[in-house]
Automatic annotation (TrEMBL):
The name this protein goes by in its record: ABC transporter permease subunit
Keywords annotated in UniProt: Cell inner membrane, Cell membrane, Membrane, Transmembrane, Transmembrane helix, Transport
Taxonomic superkingdom: Bacteria
Organism (species): Nocardioides mangrovi
Subcellular location: Cell inner membrane; Cell membrane
């Protein structure tokens, strides 16, 4: 009974927050789709799903997610082998740099690709601006880091003796990989592929900035139906379909992640240097560096060019509101708002994440307790299965009346961003807390230490690095969050992604130059945070 009360007490606050700021908005969104004029009308959802445009939107979402996943795997798996199984100068720096794109703001990446492949860009002659290929490249830009981390961590821990034995018996390297290595890596590859597909299917800023008027995903269609057409019922219907599909995919991903792999055992041998047979990894790594480096380089160069000359004028203009009053507040004010919002979202997600991680990582003494902890773990992963656009839409239509009228509250945006970051924080902390020997806690308790003292003396010394990494990860995600914020941010308190999107939507060379400069500043802030996190050597991305 004491353990049950302790479990309920620790989970009470996160459950209350989840109920008010997740279950309530999502249920309000569902009711918007199924209830018409106060009466239950499921036919309205079916009518929306029968529209030809909706069919095209769903098909493009599935197709682009599959294509982005395939490109990420083709580039990420060979690169993971080179970066995690071979030794060469600068390997750690390269691994740190390749994790940065995963948390770059989607709007920044969209602007960078447009600067690279636009009509006036270095690769404008390819005619890729506004094409499906550009969207797939943008999706791979973000998600190749997930494959490198997840597969690389598994590859690094792979016992080399079975492959060495097969090679000693005369098997070729290709045969060894196909019959020994690949079966051992299959769980990590499949799990990484499912997570990448999830991220590609819920991409918002990339499709919105690169798709133009020709291509639209479920995410961008919900946004357009809500903000431009005011068709809330159609937006709710699409949100319901997306919620069901992504929740099913999350369940599959959780099952795949839970499958134990007995072939993994940490190898202490020093990795060899690259050889001639590692050419696939070298080629893939070169392509990844081009995929990541070219858009960023084009963005930086474009921000420094004014009237065919080099100048810092675009950066100096950030303390203004652009030409023809494109903005209500200067970009510098938006940067301060973004930093302040990110700090609030970070402490919120950390406070909730620590409580959730403690609850779900403790050893269970009965089947009922184990099921309860597993259910709680699944509940707090649900925000990962609902897109930020859908969450922002739910906030918009439910938190608008007493006693929860938060439309004018400045805390609404950081609360939404904290929910987006919460699953990432939990997944970073749970493996660390779960790896602590429970006998240490029992020993401390037997010496008279209370629960808080046990946590401070046993858990905290082990988890402080992952806690700092989770804080940095949540901060970076909040800085670049665009989906929910696009619904909730007030015009007089916009964040940097909102400002950048507004600037590229207003004509004028000055506005576009300011968008480039603001994108560089926001990307630099995010990169610095993630490079600091990488120094802690905590596998944040690989946890998914």
């Amino acid at each position: 009974m004491r353990r049950a009360l302790s479990l309920v007490g620790l989970a009470a606050v996160p459950l209350a927050v989840l109920g008010v700021f997740f279950v309530l908005p999502v249920s309000g969104m569902i009711s918007e789709g199924f209830w018409t004029d106060g009466s239950f009308d499921p036919g309205a959802v079916l009518e929306v799903l029968a529209r030809p445009r909706v069919h095209r939107v769903i098909w493009f979402t599935v197709w682009s997610a599959c294509a982005g996943t395939a490109v990420s795997l083709l580039l990420g798996v060979p690169t993971a082998h080179l970066l995690h199984r071979r030794r060469f100068p600068g390997r750690r720096v390269l691994r740190a740099l390749l994790v940065v794109p995963f948390v770059l703001p989607t709007v920044v990446v969209g602007v960078a690709f447009r600067e690279l492949i636009g009509e006036a860009g270095p690769l404008g002659f390819l005619g890729l601006d506004g094409s499906a290929a550009a969207i797939v490249a943008g999706l791979a830009f973000f998600n190749v880091a997930v494959v490198i981390r997840a597969v690389g961590a598994a590859w690094e821990s792979l016992d080399p003796r079975p492959a060495e034995a097969a090679a000693a018996l005369g098997a070729s390297p290709a045969y060894v990989f196909r019959t020994v290595t690949l079966p051992a890596l299959r769980p990590a590859i499949v799990s990484a592929a499912s997570v990448v597909f999830l991220f590609c299917a819920t991409a918002f800023g990339v499709v919105l900035t690169l798709g133009g008027l020709r291509y639209s995903s479920v995410e961008t269609e919900i946004y357009l139906l809500t903000t431009n057409l005011l068709d809330l019922q159609a937006a709710a219907a699409l949100s319901i379909v997306q919620l069901l599909a992504i929740t099913a995919l999350l369940a599959i991903t959780s099952r795949l992640r839970a499958v134990p792999d007995p072939t993994l055992a940490r190898s202490t041998a020093r990795p060899p240097r690259p050889s001639r047979g590692d050419w696939p990894g070298m080629v893939a790594t070169g392509l990844v560096l081009l995929l990541v480096g070219l858009p960023i380089a084009a963005l930086v160069v474009g921000s420094l060019q004014v009237d065919d000359g080099w100048s810092l004028a675009n950066y100096r203009a950030l303390d203004g509101t652009g030409s023809r009053q494109a903005l209500l507040v200067p970009v510098t004010d938006a940067l301060v708002t973004s930093l302040r919002t990110a700090v609030d979202a970070t402490w919120m997600s950390l406070g909730l994440g620590v409580l959730v991680a403690v609850v779900v990582s403790r050893r269970s003494r009965s089947r009922a307790e184990r099921r309860a902890r597993g259910l709680l773990d699944g509940l707090f992963m649900l925000p990962l299965g609902v897109s930020a656009v859908t969450l922002g839409f739910g906030f918009l239509i439910t938190l608008d009346r007493p006693p929860l009228d938060l439309r004018d509250s400045l805390l609404l945006v950081p609360i939404a961003q904290a929910l987006v970051a919460l699953p990432l924080v939990v997944r970073t902390l749970v493996p660390v807390l779960g790896g602590i020997d429970d006998r240490q806690r029992q020993a401390a308790a037997s010496l008279g230490a209370g629960p808080l003292r046990v946590f401070a003396t046993v858990d905290l010394p082990t988890m402080w690095k992952p806690l700092l990494a989770a804080a940095g990860f949540a901060f970076a995600v909040s800085l670049g969050e665009f989906g929910a914020t696009s619904f909730l941010a007030r015009d007089d308190h916009p964040t940097m992604p909102i400002v950048i999107f507004h600037l590229i939507g207003h004509p004028g060379a000055m506005n576009y130059g300011m968008a480039l400069a603001a994108s560089v500043v926001l990307a630099a802030c995010t990169a610095v945070v993630m490079l600091v996190v990488e120094r802690l050597r905590v596998p944040t991305v690989g946890a998914f």
